[in-house]
From TrEMBL:
This is Leucine dehydrogenase. It comes from the Bacteria. PROSITE patterns: GLFV_DEHYDROGENASE (PS00074). Belongs to the Glu/Leu/Phe/Val dehydrogenases family. The keyword ATP-binding does not apply. Pfam families: ELFV_dehydrog, ELFV_dehydrog_N. The active site is at residue 80. Catalyzes the reversible oxidative deamination of glutamate to alpha-ketoglutarate and ammonia.
Length: 366
């Protein structure tokens, strides 16, 4: 397995490989960029088919976190952890402690959180030995009451705001009533998104490998259940991928009927050429690390110890304006939205680096 020459190894600053055979822990932590602040990103547990697959995943995910934080205007860098294990049978208190020790050893360079295959209870165990864990504090809700530290409701809210902005731009519609919206993946984010869209009168079409979740969505929200094959060919207005990465392939880009793709999943594009293919067909793609930043914004406020629900909501709502700006620029320049988002994120990073350099020079000469 190549590391430094890996195709997804770009400007990554640090990789940490962790092994504790006694507790069955094999993990990789990737720090892509810490120019704006400590690298914050979730810990994914997944039974990867190979170590190469795990490495590719953590490299791509950590890079996406850098862009996500930069575009959300947060003083954070990009990082991610993957644990090569099956979340259904490999979790143990000892494993979480060993993982927590590894994160603690990085002394705040990396802050961990929940991701696919991990949950708030797991993070509480990590937090027993580690100070750098977020997504575990109970949070106030707008309008009263409390919820768990899980950032998924905030991610879903950001995606909902992003769908509204995308529909306004591409379909010239200010409301979602009667729009046919497909959601793939009815997990923590997808189900909360279904709730928000249903409340606005959208007609839902759903697909998940978990039949119980599909049934629940049909019963509660009147959603129509589709097979995976039908989902990507259905006559929909909006597609919200909320399950897996890599779902937007060249083949699908050539046949999708929806005019908007706006969902929570990380790394939706198989590669950047798919973004061009979508553009050529007039399909508006909401760059994933822009639209799914709600959860990161949520835990960023938590990590700063300043969680106020109204302030967090207002910050998440900026996702709509940010997407609108990217769409306008892409239209004017005849480029893909993914291209513009990446360029803007890189601009934010080099701006931050220049500011830091100027500050260092000023304090050296003082
Ligand atoms: P989750 O694990 O709770 O839900 C994922 C859902 O997708 C599950 O219901 C699962 O059954 C379904 N699924 C898995 N494989 C599928 C397939 N082949 N076809 C259809 N459905 C399938 O995850 P989540 O927290 O809801 O996150 C969803 C996506 O959003 C992930 O890609 C995640 O990385 C991304 N994301 C989540 C957050 C967050 O705050 N939770 C933040 C940013 C990005």
């Amino acid at each position: 397995m190549s590391v430094f020459t890996h195709e997804a190894m770009h400007d990554h600053q640090m990789l940490v490989f962790i092994q504790d055979k006694a507790v069955g822990l094999k993990a990789i932590i990737a720090l892509h960029n810490t120019r704006l602040g400590p690298a914050l990103g979730g810990c994914r547990m997944y039974p990867y088919a190979s170590e190469t697959e795990a490495l590719a995943d953590v490299l791509r995910l950590s890079e996406g976190m850098t862009y996500k934080a930069a575009l959300a205007g947060l003083p954070l860098g990009g990082g991610k952890a993957v644990i090569l294990a099956d979340p259904r049978k490999d979790k143990s208190p000892q494993l979480w402690r060993a993982f927590g020790d590894a994160v603690q050893n990085l002394q705040g360079l990396y802050i961990t959180a929940e991701d696919s295959g991990t949950c708030v209870q797991d993070l509480h165990q990590v937090a027993q030995v580690c100070d750098y864990v977020v997504g575990i504090q109970q949070k106030p809700c707008i309008g009263g009451g409390w919820r768990s530290g899980d950032p998924s409701p905030s991610t879903a809210y950001g995606v909902y705001v992003g769908i509204q902005a995308s529909v306004a731009f591409r379909l010239q519609r200010q409301d979602l009533r009667g729009l046919r919206i497909g959601i793939q993946g009815l997990g923590q984010v997808g189900m909360a998104l279904a709730h928000l869209l249903h409340a606005q009168g959208a007609r839902l079409y759903v697909q998940d490998i978990d039949a119980d979740k599909q049934t629940k969505c049909a019963q509660v929200f009147g959603a129509q259940v589709l097979t995976e094959e039908d989902f990507w060919h259905a006559d929909l207005d909006v597609i919200a991928p909320c399950a897996l990465g890599g779902v937007l392939t060249q083949a699908r880009a050539a046949s999708i009927k929806a005019k908007v793709i706006a969902g929570a999943a990380n790394n939706q594009l198989e590669d950047m050429r798919v973004a061009d293919a979508l553009k050529r067909r007039g399909i508006l793609y909401a760059p994933d690390y822009v639209i799914n930043a709600g959860g990161l914004i949520d835990v960023a406020y938590e990590s700063q110890g300043q969680y106020q629900a109204a302030q967090v909501q207002a910050h998440i709502e900026q996702i709509g304006e940010r997407l609108h700006g990217i769409y306008q620029q892409a239209q004017h320049q005849g480029r893909s939205t993914a291209d513009i988002a990446q360029e803007t994120a890189l601009h934010c990073l080099s701006h931050a680096q220049a500011a830091r350099h100027t500050q260092a020079m000023a304090s050296a000469s003082a």
